[in-house]
Amino acid sequence: MSKTGLPLEGVRVIEYANYVAAPVCGRCLADWGAEVIKIEPLEGDSMRYVGMQWNFPIEEDENPLFEMENSGKKGIMVDTRSKEGVELIYELLQTADVFLTNTRQRALDKSGLNYECIKEKAPHIIFAHLLGYGDNGPAKNNPAFDYTAYFARGGVARSLMEKGTSPANPVAGLGDHYAGISLAAGIVASLFKKKETGKGERVTVSLFHTAVFGMGIPVAASKYGYRMPISRRTPPNPLNTTFKCADGNWVQLAFFQYEKWFGNFCDMVIERPDLKGSKYSTMKEAVKHTEEFVIMMEEEFIKRPFAEWAERLQKAGIPYEKLASPEDVLNDEQCWSNDYLIKHTYDNGNEGVLYNTPVMFTENPREGYVRAPKMGEHTEQVMKDLGVSADKIEKLKENNIIK
């Protein structure tokens, strides 16, 4: 991937992170032009091994899950439990702008890679920390993943379930990705300020806060008695819900201009002109009869397949979409027309599909694709660039400090 002309060209990031949230932040920064050097333990990032849960191969030559979160980076392996390994990281920090991590605070304190130590020895560094629950409070030291801190404690999973049913199994990485790109935005803001002051900053994003932010409307509404989960038959607006079609597909409506669109909906979509002027024709009255109206509309939508409803809704100018499966997204022409998805050929010759990060630049677009690093692929070159002699590099390898 060419970095030329991209906004973060010339910025160096040292990534000391595993799993998803902080690494996807690093991937965004790399896509925006930064040089990102990923530090892995000698056994490798855990993300190299967990992909089998979602049917991904986990071979060195084909590891899509690791690839998606780590493309465009350089990769080195350093034992940060050793004094020599930490010293090497501090040498790297003298050449860098950003230290990116999601390592738990106690581990950073133990290794001497916490904010206080880095600020003292490298005050120019922007210390970007992806947290689970935040700096304070009773949960601050709890282990966190998006399943727990984002979906569960953040109220997302319970709010997405159909009232009266069991929770759905969370979507892997969803909260991680939102937290990661949020941290990337904070880093860019800090880099902007650093140009003026020359000083570093500590910028944090937590998985829990990301969920609270995303859930802001229903959380605030709960103060006034609004409760979730809800049933799809009792939404706040009877036409802001899903309806099953004759072919088994579901259609989602976004009927936010209720009175303006209701006439066309009755005439052009469901062919029920008799409903115009009824108790369902204004939002103020319709919400008093939500469930009975939704059930009535269920009886209408089940009569025709999705394609026919799509044609009618399109002509009427009413926002709608089919509830897509991941396979539908994989084959969606809209994705491929806009480079939201990427085809990538692995070193073993197999072709896979990866996502593109969601910020695009018109005048200086990204060019090509740079795969994720193999285990320890750039260790030796990065050490040489630091001025470490060939003899010392060999000794560090022999002593299992680097790999």
Task: Describe this structure as you would to a colleague.
With 403 residues, the protein is of the alpha/beta class. The protein folds into two domains: 12-215 and 336-399, Rossmann fold, CATH 3.40.50; 250-322, no CATH class. 39% of the residues lie in helices and 13% in strands. The protein is built from 18 helices and eleven strands. The chain has helices at 21-31, 64-70, 83-93, 105-111, 115-121, 146-152, 156-160, 174-197, 207-214, 216-222, 258-269, 283-286, 290-301, 306-316, 326-330, 333-337, 379-385, 390-398; strands spanning 12-16, 35-40, 74-77, 98-101, 126-131, 201-206, 242-244, 250-253, 320-322, 341-345, 351-355. The protein has a six-stranded parallel β-sheet with strand order 3-2-1-4-5-6, sandwiched between helices. A three-stranded antiparallel β-sheet has the order 7-8-9, with helices on one face. It has a two-stranded antiparallel sheet with strand order 10-11. Strand 10 (341-345) and strand 11 (351-355) form a beta hairpin. Helix 11 crosses helix 14 (306-316). The longest helix is centred in the middle third of the chain and has 24 residues, at 174-197. The protein is elongated. GO terms for molecular function: catalytic activity. It comes from Peptostreptococcus russellii. It holds the Pfam family CoA_transf_3.
